[in-house]
Design brief:
heterotrimer; A mainly alpha (216); B mainly alpha (279); C alpha/beta (250); A: mainly alpha; Methane Monooxygenase Hydroxylase, Chain G, domain 1; elongated; C: 250 residues; Rossmann fold; six-stranded mixed beta sheet; 10 helices; 36% helix
Chain lengths: 216, 279, 250
């Protein structure tokens, strides 16, 4: 019945939106914990992972139910399949955010240099994720396509951060440990941006049934 | 090779079927043509409005026989059609499978095949010898007895054609069986039932034998349906045709033509008047 | 409002053939309950027991108990029971001799209602509920047979609704219809459940999945499994249910 299917898709959109907000909270919190090297905060955000996992399970259940009972086809089917994939991407983003929080556990402070590019990367990656979800809920192709450019910017920042850190590490071997950890943080943020472009790819798939690589 | 043979056989068979169909039509048209040719010359207004002339005189008509035939048909219909329809309703709606309905159905079939003269004799024994009068009533009853099995059978077939789903739909709405039969099944089958009844009427209106011992025949107007014999076209035709007078022979041909026309009209009404409403 | 049904140890025979072998089942009010199962599993017989239509067939027999709103249906007059438990059949079966209007009000009219205005009001209300009013309001005096198959079926639904039942039985109501007409009937079922308890027999399990709140799987005259549709179609408890819905048999 068309109505049930529409309602189900509405539920999915809402779930993904809420899940995105939760992931945003965790990423922002983890980054804050990193900037202040606050381990208690870091532990708190690590424990928040369960909420995201619950959301992912809810999205999965709803998709399975819709596929089993409503026999969606064409765009309806693509939308539901994509919702499952997007929830997986969001869950990965949360995992990466948690990984950043876990790094806070291991960094011995204080920071060897003020963080400039890493916060910018974090903001960009977060913006991309939100833009991806916005594109999904509005089925906006332009917003989705635009993610490719944003991803280029993040990749660019990533290269910059790695280059800077390599210089710091080679200049002062005492910074080696911290430099390695920060390189990983940058790497994780770059991965988060990649997952955000995946969301965009799914939006394009929903609209056109074409698989487009936004992460070139 | 095989194709040629097959085409040949095909054409041959087609030819045989066509010839058989043609042969079947020959008697029908020959009969109609003969009756029309002989009858049309003796038809005039007098034929329809005058009594038969006294023996040996020319002129006169068959007004009383035409009226008699119509009266007999009316009596037969009034008795035969309702009974036939009621029996058919019982057989299809109330009791389709019991030994009683099987017996009735079998008896009906047998009755259809009994020669009509036997029915005439039996009705004569039952009514004429009891009332001591030949009468229109006795003739009508004899015709009704012939009609009843015909009406039962045709009505039964028509009721059976009403899909069971229609009756079930009625039951499912909480409608009583009486209402379902009266307001749903009968209206659905009405056209077929009426057509069947008309054909039964057409069938008996040409009967002669059962009338010989019951209505007898009459050269004059009939005044009582129960006490006087009554004239009818078939009996009049029989009487005139077996007489030695040429004038009567001509009258018999004219009577035959009128009788055929009446039957044809009944048939046509049955076939067309009720078909046009079906869509 | 819909009423709940409680079926206890229901057995039914057709001749010497036992078609239902002790069914126990609760049917909740104002829900759509779908009955699925392979041909000959007794699903049609089951719904036909609920309005006592099964007994009208020669050679049939019923044992057990069906409780409707706290009262046994076998203690009631079957003709008046059928005003409470309406039924829609597999093939659309409007009365051929009647107009659209006469079809809709046939149930109330032949049960004695004569008031023209009331009949008019009932016809409009029922046709609206059956989502047919807009399509036929200008030709109520046309024959019911002049409608398309899907419209005829909705006419039959309107006709069933006109007698104001509290339970509506549907015996494969969309199996003779095309996909679009089917979809409209399914939508209609979804709308009607707020007013009626609906039991729908279907050999199309996707249809059951789409529209039913609970689904019951029948096999060889037995109730194998009855539960929320979402569970039956994602995680059935019984192996036979799984085999059937996944197309391994039946």
């Amino acid at each position: 019945m068309r109505q049930t299917l529409n309602e189900g898709q509405q539920v999915l959109t809402t779930l993904l939106k809420e899940m995105g907000e939760e992931v945003t909270r965790i990423l922002q919190g983890s980054m804050k914990a990193l900037y202040s090297l606050d381990r208690t905060q870091a532990e708190y955000w690590i424990s928040e992972d369960q909420k995201v996992n619950d959301y992912e399970r809810q999205v999965d259940d709803e998709c399975v139910l819709l596929i089993a009972t409503q026999q969606p086809v064409a765009k309806d089917l693509r939308k539901i399949i994509s919702a499952m994939k997007i929830s997986t991407d969001l869950e990965r983003i949360a995992d990466l955010a948690i990984d950043i929080a876990k790094i806070v556990r291991r960094i011995e402070g204080p920071l060897c240099k003020p963080l400039v590019d890493i916060p910018r990367m974090a903001e960009e990656a977060l913006k991309m994720m939100r833009q991806g979800l916005e594109a999904y809920s509005r089925e906006d192709m332009v917003l989705a396509q635009n993610l490719a450019e944003l991803d280029d910017a993040v990749d660019h920042l990533y290269n910059q951060v790695v280059r800077d850190l390599v210089i710091i590490m080679t200049q002062e071997p005492n910074n080696l440990d911290q430099g390695m950890h920060l390189t990983f943080v940058a790497r994780y943020l770059e991965r988060i941006a990649d997952h955000a472009t995946n969301i965009g790819e799914n939006v394009i798939y929903i609209a056109t049934a074409e698989r487009k690589d936004l992460n070139y | 090779m095989i194709n040629v043979r097959r085409n040949f056989v095909n054409k041959l068979m087609l030819g045989i079927f066509a010839a058989a169909t043609f042969l079947a039509l020959v008697p029908l048209f020959a009969l109609l043509g003969y009756v029309i040719k002989n009858g049309i010359t003796s038809l005039n207004l007098d034929f329809f409005i005058k009594l038969p002339a006294v023996m040996g005189m020319t002129g006169g008509g068959m007004a009383n026989a035409i009226e008699g035939t119509l009266i007999l048909i009316a009596i037969a219909s009034i008795i035969g059609i309702p009974i036939g329809i009621l029996v058919a309703i019982y057989l299809t709606e109330y009791d389709r499978y019991s030994w009683l309905s099987t017996t009735v159905r079998f008896t009906t079939d047998v009755l259809t095949g009994i020669p009509s003269i036997i029915i005439g004799i039996v009705v004569s024994m039952a009514i004429v010898s009891k009332t001591k009068h030949f009468s229109a009533f006795a003739g009508g009853v004899a015709l009704a007895v012939i009609m009843i099995p015909l009406v039962i059978r045709s009505t039964e077939e028509m009721l059976k054609l009403v899909p069971h789903a229609i009756r079930e739909a009625g039951y499912a709405l909480g409608i009583s069986q009486r209402r379902i039969i009266l307001n749903i099944v009968l209206p659905t089958a009405a056209k077929g039932i009426i057509t069947g009844a008309m054909l039964a009427v057409a069938r008996v209106s040409g009967e002669t034998a059962p009338l010989l011992f019951t209505a007898l025949g009459n050269q004059y107007w009939t005044h009582s349906l129960f006490k006087d014999p009554i004239a009818s076209l078939p009996v009049q035709i029989y009487t005139y045709a077996t007489s030695p007078y040429d004038e009567w022979h001509r009258q018999a041909w004219a009577g035959s033509l009128v009788l055929i026309a009446i039957i044809l009209c009944l048939n046509l009404i049955a076939r067309f008047a009720f078909r046009s409403r079906s869509n | 409002m819909g009423q709940s049904l409680s079926i206890r140890q229901l057995e039914a025979w057709y001749g010497t053939n036992q078609t239902l072998k002790g069914i126990n089942m609760e049917i909740a009010a104002n829900q759509v309950t779908a009955i699925i199962g392979p041909s000959g599993c007794g699903k049609s017989t089951f719904v036909r027991c609920i309005n006592r239509m099964h007994e009208t067939l020669p050679g049939s027999k019923v044992k057990g108990e069906i409780i409707l709103n706290g009262e046994s249906i076998y203690g009631q007059d079957p003709v008046s029971l059928r005003k409470t438990v309406g039924m829609v059949f597999q093939k659309p079966n409007p009365f051929p001799s009647m107009t659209i209007f006469e079809n809709v009000v046939a149930g109330v009219k032949l049960n004695g209602m004569r008031n023209k205005q009331n009949l008019q009001a009932i016809a409009e209300k029922s046709l609206r509920m059956a989502a047919l009013w807009d399509e036929v309001k200008d030709r109520l005096n046309y024959s019911g047979m002049s409608l398309s198959g899907g419209q005829q079926q909705r006419l039959c639904i309107a006709r069933a609704l006109a007698v104001e039942p509290s339970v509506l039985l549907m015996d494969e109501p969309a199996s003779a219809l095309d996909p679009i007409a089917t979809m409209r009937i399914e939508e209609l079922v979804g709308q009607l459940k707020s007013e009626y308890t609906i039991v729908i027999v279907t050999h199309n399990m996707q249809q059951a999945a789409r529209i039913a709140d609970t689904t019951a799987f029948f096999l060889n005259g037995e109730l194998v499994e009855h539960g929320p549709t979402s569970e039956i179609f994602t995680n059935p408890r019984d192996k036979r249910t799984e085999d059937y819905i996944t197309g391994r048999f039946g």
